[in-house]
Amino acid sequence: MDITCSHCKSSFVIPDDRIPETKKFKLNCPKCREPIVVDQESADEKIAAPEHFPHDATVAFLFVKNKKLAERIGLFLKSRGIFVSETTLIHEALDKVRINYYNILILEESEQAKAILGVVRKWNGLRRRDVNIILVEAACKSLHSNEAFFRGVNSVISEADNERIENILDLALGEFKSYSEPWAVAAKRLHMKG
């Protein structure tokens, strides 16, 4: 079960086997220690349905709450022939990332994005290798490889670079293509032999 603290807005996941059988229960936020009341009966949030895109399409998932920035990123991706799925609701974002297969994840740097990255950490190595994860509005220098590594993503884009987001995204997509090319060649050779 995905929980978001109403006080500090931290998101975290409670394993299903740890959820009490009661309809309502209380727990303390692991980050700010404030009480959270969970009412399972009033959970009006529906699970996101699987999305359908054309076969072999490149699909990006966008979780960016800054509407102007999200719109610019969406237009840039669509101009490159990339299909875009987006949401600003954390429970819907978590469902979408668990259910659907995306080639690109573009997330804002936030506590909620950390919950999405928690889902990504559960993927096997092959799946993770095939997904380009880009963190935008990061509190660091754009395209800094160490910062990206520490955050568990492929690229970071600084909030200071929002005005030229299209150029930086183009570079981030190019870097990932260079990174994944040897893997694609190796897979093709292996497939030809097998």
List keywords for this structure.
single chain, 194 residues, alpha/beta, Rossmann fold, 5-stranded parallel sheet, two-stranded antiparallel ribbon, 9 strands, 21% strand, globular, Zinc finger/thioredoxin putative domain-containing protein
Strands, count: 9
Architecture of the largest domain, CATH level 2?
3-Layer(aba) Sandwich
Per DSSP, the total helix count is: 6
Report, as a whole number of angstroms, the end-to-end distance. Answer: 42 Å
Instruction: Please indicate the count of domains.
Output: 2
Strands of the biggest beta sheet: in what spatial order?
A: 6-5-7-8-9
Question: Which overall shape is indicated by the principal axes computed on the Cα atoms?
Answer: globular
Element-level helix/strand string: EEEEEHEHEHHEHEH
Tell me the structural class. Answer: alpha/beta
Query: What top-tier CATH class of the largest domain fits best?
Result: Alpha Beta
Quick summary:
This is Zinc finger/thioredoxin putative domain-containing protein. Pfam families: Zn_ribbon_4 (PF13717). This protein has helices at residues 67-79, 90-99, 111-120, 125-129, 145-151, 165-193; strands at residues 2-4, 11-13, 24-28, 35-39, 59-63, 83-86, 104-108, 132-138, 155-158.
